[in-house]
Amino acid sequence: MNKHNYRWQAFRNTLFKGTHGSDPLWSRKYFEAILALDECYWCLGELTVNHDSGVPLDWMYGLRVARNCVPACRECIDIRQSGRFTFGEMELLRPGLAEIRRSRRQSIQPEIIPVQV
Q1: Are 73 and 45 in contact (CB under 8 A)?
Q2: Where in the chain are the domains?
Q3: Fewer Cβ in 10 A, N or C end of the chain?
Q4: How far apart are CA 16 and CA 61, in angstroms?
């Protein structure tokens, strides 16, 4: 099962019964387009499967409709679900989160400084 198929199935299982089937998010093509870059909106990291739902989307106000979501990695979803930051506060943190992710990618190996004896 490919990554988008798994995510699509998991997403369909999480839709609230109150959402309307005419919302663009109900379209698999729209859903896949949101995730096409495979990049977290907040930190620009790779999308990972959210451990709760299997869906790498962060919901602004809980309602699962197209205008209300952004693709997000597990770490950023965990930050948001912890209640530490609102959607608006995450917008303010976004450049910093992207910089942290970028610097961590570049410094996987710590620099070894030779010791003078």
Answers
A1: yes
A2: 3-106
A3: C
A4: 13
